[in-house]
């Protein structure tokens, strides 16, 4: 049965803003109460291009989810993505203050891991421990309570441009909600689609988003490596638009409704696609074979870039549980055979449906993996007590008040 505590997560992507309101059962299964989506056409590669339009889209996604639940949301968790997110791996070492390791010692080691990392004009989003070492005994997952004199942590440090973050905080505050915590989507998707066994044996999650592709590698139950490559679904759409000399909107429809990756050079058969069926302003036909060539070429690039990152991590072709694909780009037809061919790994589509933490969410779609994973991580790690203060402005304050009352009044 539900615990009664409600969590709200918002995924700010380059193509869509997704809001999920949910609570958890006593066994930690998620029960989705409300879902809201809107276009985020004024976000490019994680940067806000038009603040007013972005706030309208953000408010629309939040209001849509609120209408489904009948609740007014005051605080949210954010998922951020795009090339604006950077990650660095570093080591932090501290002396243990008492006779055994406490949570304070762990927190100090995570703080020390940030020393020496170039964070000029950047703000830290999250510091995620990989493994701990105590008195030269490596490979520990949770050292709290153990006797030691020295504690060492190897940690992944995720950061974002300070100005980008300030703009996001200001926009969220202006629509009348506070931010409880923020997560990079490169680490949240795996929480929604992976099992503990997969993380133990070795697996990579590949989230093909709009402006970028996220890669996270897990082994022995811990995050081993993560990376962001600046190529995603919007590049496929642009290629189609340029190749066929059509609008971006029509190119997007062709990608979603017609395109696939099942191309064989020996196949002489071709099909003509009547563009008038998709856009009344178009009157000519285009080649399905040429469409496949265009889309396949970009996906080949994406998977070769992913494989290069896996090679950098020393895990190319060496992950027993293979690759789990999420994000909107994972929904194109025949993507799995191509992923298996290039990555030389087993491949599957990851949906937030059945894992240790997610069951029957009613949003069994790979595009929701990151936002559902944020709910899982929020439940597990966050205090859910107070919001992160954004930059204060008088105009922003009164705009927040107006938005708040517009949600209350009929």
Describe, in plain words, how this protein is organized in 3D:
By secondary structure, this protein is an alpha+beta fold. It folds into three domains: 2-83 and 163-188 and 355-399, Nucleotidyltransferase, domain 5 (2-Layer Sandwich); 86-158, Dna Ligase, domain 1 (2-Layer Sandwich); 213-349, Nucleotidyltransferase, domain 5, CATH 3.30.420.40. Helices cover 34% and strands 30% of the residues. The protein is built from eleven helices and 18 strands. The protein has helices spanning 51-69, 103-112, 162-174, 185-193, 196-201, 233-244, 248-257, 288-312, 335-343, 369-381, 394-408; strands at residues 2-12, 16-25, 30-39, 43-44, 47-48, 75-80, 86-95, 122-134, 137-140, 150-161, 178-184, 203-208, 213-219, 222-229, 272-274, 285-287, 323-326, 347-349. The strands form five sheets. The protein has a five-stranded mixed β-sheet with strand order 3-2-1-6-11, with helices on both faces. It has a five-stranded mixed β-sheet with strand order 14-13-12-17-18, with helices on both faces. It has a four-stranded antiparallel β-sheet with strand order 7-10-8-9. Helix 1 (51-69) crosses helix 3, helix 3 crosses helix 11 and helix 6 (233-244) crosses helix 7. The model is unreliable at 383-410 (pLDDT under 50).
Give a short synopsis of this structure:
The chain is α+β, with helices and mostly antiparallel strands and about 400 residues long.
Q: Secondary-structure map with pairings?
A:
Layout: E1 2-12, E2 16-25, E3 30-39, E4 43-44, E5 47-48, H1 51-69, E6 75-80, E7 86-95, H2 103-112, E8 122-134, E9 137-140, E10 150-161, H3 162-174, E11 178-184, H4 185-193, H5 196-201, E12 203-208, E13 213-219, E14 222-229, H6 233-244, H7 248-257, E15 272-274, E16 285-287, H8 288-312, E17 323-326, H9 335-343, E18 347-349, H10 369-381, H11 394-408
Parallel strand pairs: 1-6, 6-11, 12-17, 17-18
Antiparallel strand pairs: 1-2, 2-3, 4-5, 7-10, 8-9, 8-10, 12-13, 13-14, 15-16
Helix pairs in contact: 1-3, 3-11, 4-10, 6-7, 6-8, 8-9
């Amino acid at each position: 049965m539900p615990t009664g505590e409600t969590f709200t997560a918002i995924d700010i992507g380059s193509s869509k803003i997704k809001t999920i309101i949910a609570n958890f059962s006593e066994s930690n299964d998620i029960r989705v109460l409300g879902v809201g989506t809107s276009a985020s056409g004024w976000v490019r590669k994680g940067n806000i291009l038009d603040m007013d339009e972005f706030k309208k889209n953000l408010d629309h996604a939040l209001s849509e989810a609120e209408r489904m639940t009948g609740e007014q949301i005051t605080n949210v968790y954010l998922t951020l993505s795009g090339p604006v997110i950077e990650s660095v791996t570093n080591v932090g070492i501290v002396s243990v203050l008492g006779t055994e390791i406490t949570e304070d010692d762990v927190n100090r080691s995570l703080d020390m891991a940030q020393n020496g990392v170039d964070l000029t004009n950047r703000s830290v989003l999250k510091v995620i421990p990989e493994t701990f070492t105590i008195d030269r005994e490596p490979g520990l997952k949770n050292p709290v309570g153990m006797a030691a004199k020295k504690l060492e942590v190897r940690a992944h440090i995720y950061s974002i441009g300070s100005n980008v973050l300030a703009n996001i905080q200001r926009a969220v505050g202006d629509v009348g909600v506070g931010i409880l915590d923020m997560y990079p989507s490169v680490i949240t998707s795996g929480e929604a689609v992976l099992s503990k066994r997969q993380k133990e044996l070795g697996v990579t999650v590949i989230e093909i988003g709009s402006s970028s592709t996220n890669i996270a590698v897990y082994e022995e139950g811990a995050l081993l490596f993560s990376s962001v490559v600046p190529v995603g679904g919007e590049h496929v759409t642009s290629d189609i638009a340029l190749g066929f000399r059509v609008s971006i909107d029509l190119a997007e429809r062709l990608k979603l409704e017609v395109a696939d990756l099942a191309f064989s050079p020996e196949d002489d058969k071709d099909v003509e696609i009547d563009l008038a069926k998709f856009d009344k302003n178009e009157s000519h036909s285009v080649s399905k074979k040429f469409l496949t060539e265009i889309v396949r070429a970009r996906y080949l690039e994406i998977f070769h870039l992913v494989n290069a990152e896996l090679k950098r991590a020393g895990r190319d072709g060496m992950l027993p549980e293979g690759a789990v694909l999420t994000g909107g780009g994972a929904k194109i037809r025949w993507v799995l055979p191509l992923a298996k061919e290039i990555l030389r790994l087993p491949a599957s589509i990851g949906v937030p449906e059945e894992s240790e933490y997610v069951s029957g969410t009613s949003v069994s779609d790979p595009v929701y993996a990151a936002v559902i994973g944020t709910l899982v991580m929020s439940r597990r790690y966050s205090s859910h007590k107070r919001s992160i203060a954004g930059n204060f402005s008088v105009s922003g304050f009164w705009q927040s008040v107006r938005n708040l009352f517009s949600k209350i009044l009929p």
